[in-house]
Amino acid sequence: MSKSKPSEKELREKLHQVGKDISKLSADKKFSSEDALIKAERSLLMLYSEGLKTGFEHIDSHLNQVIEILDEVHSGKQEPKYLTTGLLELDEMLCGLDAGNLYIIGGSPGMGKTALVLTILRHAAVQEKVPVGIFSLDLTGTQIAFRLLCMEAKVNTHLVRTGKLSKSQWNAFTSSMKTLTKSEIFIDDIKSLSPLKMKHNAIRLKAEHDIKLLIIDNNQAIQKRDTQHLPYRLLKQMAVELDIPVIVTSPLTRKPEERKNKRPLLSDFHRADEIEEAADTIMLLYRPWIDTLDEADRGKAEVIIAKSRNGPTGYVNLKFVEKYAGFE
User: Fold this and answer.
1) Are strands 102-107 and 281-286 parallel, antiparallel or unpaired?
2) pLDDT at 168
3) Under a CB-based contact definition with an 8 Å cutoff, are residues 272 and 266 in contact?
4) Rounded CA Rg of the chain
5) Which residues have C-beta within 8 Å of that of residue 39, sequence separation ≥ 6?
6) pLDDT tens digits, residue range 17-47?
7) With contact defined as beta carbons under 8 Å apart, do 113 and 285 qualify?
8) Contact 232, 264 (CB under 8 A)
9) pLDDT one-digit tens code per residue, 216-240
10) Largest CA distance in the chain
11) Residue 105 to residue 218: CA distance in whole angstroms
């Protein structure tokens, strides 16, 4: 006969006892710090397995959930449960942003990687009204807030900086400030984060605010500082554990500059093999005007979906709005 699951009171009493045992263990000089950590982890895992369900479940329960969701979606009773980017053609190709998936956005300098992720972040926080988090490894939190304000108000960033806004533009700017203040956008702009510290901060943010989307702008900055881990595999793991979509931007090598056709390829990433293995979806951002300087190309942008585990690959055309550095 199988042992019944402990009650809440029993679990708390056992947790209290394990805490006391770990405290004694930390002071016991007979054990090295590594051995003490292993013993402490083992005690906690034993309690975890005793009090919670095992990680394995029969497929039947998952199949029933799939059928229920599909039935409700196809009958029109509910909308599909995924976040959207706010960019219609991109959402059609991706079928939105799925929880547990890792999305990589690559592009050469100046193509608008940060502008694209901020467009998606603003839409999620303001239009879909969900809590979102962003690790900004280039811009400060103040710079992120400024760009989101201009994007929300649809006002020219240069006019804001030079104090040349009209009265109506200023009213739009202040109104946007109120809108963003009500949203749940959380910014971490600490530049010295290691991958493991970043994961710790993300887990804490999920626990405290239940974020539904996490963005990491310029992951290459982490790689340059920490070579002991595989960041992209760690980030995929983070997406699965937090059960949210994680979007990461990463710069490319200078290979596109050496080609006649400047459109980026998967092989243009730094550590391309690692990225291709870890990511569920890989998008490459290209704005032809950066290379041609032809006015006919100004505002044109392409998102090349180079890899997609859950959908088609292909091209999506977007419009880049230069005055407030956003995409439509």
Assistant:
1) parallel
2) 87
3) yes
4) 23
5) 25, 31
6) 888 888 888 888 888 887 787 777 767 766 6
7) yes
8) no
9) 998 765 555 544 445 788 889 889 9
10) 78
11) 10
Burial string for 174-185 (b: 16+ CB within 10 Å, else e) reads eebeeebeebeb
More confidently predicted of 179 and 9: 179
What pLDDT is stored for residue 1 in this prediction?
Answer: 41
**What is the distance between the alpha carbons of residues 209 and 184, in angstroms, rounded to a whole number?**
8
For 265-293, what is the mean pLDDT? 92
How are beta strands 185-188 and 213-217 bridged, if at all? unpaired
Pairs from 153-158 (Cβ < 8 Å, separation ≥ 24): 153/324, 154/321, 154/323, 154/324, 155/323, 155/324, 156/323, 156/324, 157/323, 157/324, 157/325, 158/323
Question: What angle separates helix 195-209 from helix 231-242, to the nearest 10 degrees?
Answer: 10
Helix axes 8-27, 33-51, angle to 10 degrees: 170
pLDDT beyond 80 at 161: yes
Helix (H, G, I), strand (E, B) or coil at 306: strand
The residues facing 186 across adjacent strands are 133
* DSSP letter string, 82-128: SB--S-HHHHHHHTSB-TT-EEEEEE-TTS-HHHHHHHHHHIIIIIS
Question: Measured between alpha carbons, how far is 30 from 21 in angstroms, rounded to an integer?
Answer: 14
Calculate helix-pair angle for 113-122, 141-153, nearest 10 degrees: 70
Torsion of CA 211, 215, 221, 224, to 10 degrees: 70
* Four-residue CA torsion sign, 229, 232, 237, 243: positive
Q: What is the distance between the alpha carbons of residues 140 and 42, in angstroms, rounded to a whole number?
A: 40
Strand partners, 214: 133, 246
Ordered DSSP codes for 176-191: HHHHHHHS-EEEE--T
Name residues whose C-beta falls within 8 Å of residue 1's C-beta, 6 or more positions apart in sequence.
Answer: none
pLDDT at 76: 62
Q: Which H helix or E strand runs over 281? A: strand 281-286
CA dihedral over 257, 258, 262, 265, signed as positive or negative: negative
At 14, which helix (H) or strand (E)? helix 8-27
